């Protein structure tokens, strides 16, 4: 059974819509790639409630170098997003899925920049196991990031992409968390009642090294150097 501090979030997501988690622009076609991510909340005696994040390897073709929830593509053998999220999390971090209690499957989210429909799976880390990059080709680092760090106003900012898009971001655990993951995290923190006031006028351009990786993914998705 999840702890009392997690109950407000579990209650809040019962009727949550995709548009409550992130803006939904356009509609995917029938052949779109489907993925699942594990939004895994845990707790330690030393640092309190936390969430598991990874930083993807800079060598990947997709989402290179980006902080993210553990997760990946849904395969036919998975039978659905829950099994996919748990399998990918085990493959990426070495966690033991037996210690994870799934609490909710959130609405499918259409993410046009990666041409992907992503299903977040909300879970409680009932019996935490040791985690570390299980495959350094795919994962550069793994971190249990305290919620206190995520909601600290000093960790919060907004990031501006050259396209004009501006979205929430976090500087935590030596990572700049932005894009899809930051957007979903921002909403989960708010729905869980943990969010604190922060200065939303702090807007920074996406760093050039991060932008270069993002543009590389964009070209891979569109199939052209000039996109």
Overall structural domain count: 1
Shape verdict: globular
User: What is the makeup of the main sheet?
Assistant: 8 strands, mixed
**SSE-based structural type:** alpha+beta
Output the CATH class name: Alpha Beta
Could you walk me through the main structural features you see in this protein, from its secondary elements to its overall organization?
The longest helix is centred in the C-terminal third of the chain and has 15 residues, at 208-222. The chain is α+β, with helices and mostly antiparallel strands. The chain has a single domain, classed as Nucleoside Triphosphate Pyrophosphohydrolase, CATH 3.90.79.10. β9 and β10 (166-172) form a beta hairpin. It starts with 6 loop residues before the first helix and ends in a 5-residue tail after the last helix. It has helices at residues 7-12, 18-21, 81-93, 147-151, 179-191, 208-222, and strands at 33-44, 48-56, 67-68, 71-73, 100-105, 109-111, 116-125, 139-146, 156-160, 166-172, 175-177, 203-205.
How do the helices and strands line up, and which of them pair or pack?
Elements: H1 7-12, H2 18-21, E1 33-44, E2 48-56, E3 67-68, E4 71-73, H3 81-93, E5 100-105, E6 109-111, E7 116-125, E8 139-146, H4 147-151, E9 156-160, E10 166-172, E11 175-177, H5 179-191, E12 203-205, H6 208-222
Parallel strand pairs: 1-7, 9-12
Antiparallel strand pairs: 1-2, 1-4, 2-3, 2-8, 5-7, 6-7, 9-10, 10-11
Concise account of the structure shown:
This protein is of the alpha+beta class and 227 residues long. The chain contains six helices and twelve strands.
């Amino acid at each position: 059974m999840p702890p009392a501090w997690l109950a407000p979030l579990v209650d809040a997501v019962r009727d949550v819509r995709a548009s409550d988690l992130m803006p939904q622009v356009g509609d995917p076609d029938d052949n779109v790639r489907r993925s699942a991510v594990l939004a895994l909340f845990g707790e330690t005696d030393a640092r309190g409630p936390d969430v598991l994040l990874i930083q993807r390897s800079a060598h990947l073709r997709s989402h290179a170098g980006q902080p993210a929830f553990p997760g990946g593509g849904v395969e036919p053998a998975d039978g659905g997003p829950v099994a996919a999220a748990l399998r990918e999390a085990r493959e990426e971090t070495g966690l033991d899925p037996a210690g994870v209690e799934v609490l909710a499957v959130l609405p499918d989210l259409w993410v046009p920049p990666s041409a992907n429909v992503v299903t977040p799976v909300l879970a409680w880390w009932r019996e935490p196991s040791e985690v570390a990059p299980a495959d350094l080709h795919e994962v550069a680092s793994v971190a249990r990031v305290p919620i206190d760090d995520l909601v600290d106003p000093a960790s919060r900012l907004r990031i501006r992409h050259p396209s004009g898009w501006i979205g929430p971001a976090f500087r935590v655990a030596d990572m700049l968390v932005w894009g899809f993951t930051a957007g979903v995290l921002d909403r989960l923190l708010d729905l869980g009642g943990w969010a604190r006031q922060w200065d939303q006028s702090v807007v920074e351009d996406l760093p050039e090294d991060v932008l270069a990786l993002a543009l590389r993914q964009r070209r891979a998705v569109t199939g052209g150097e000039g996109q």
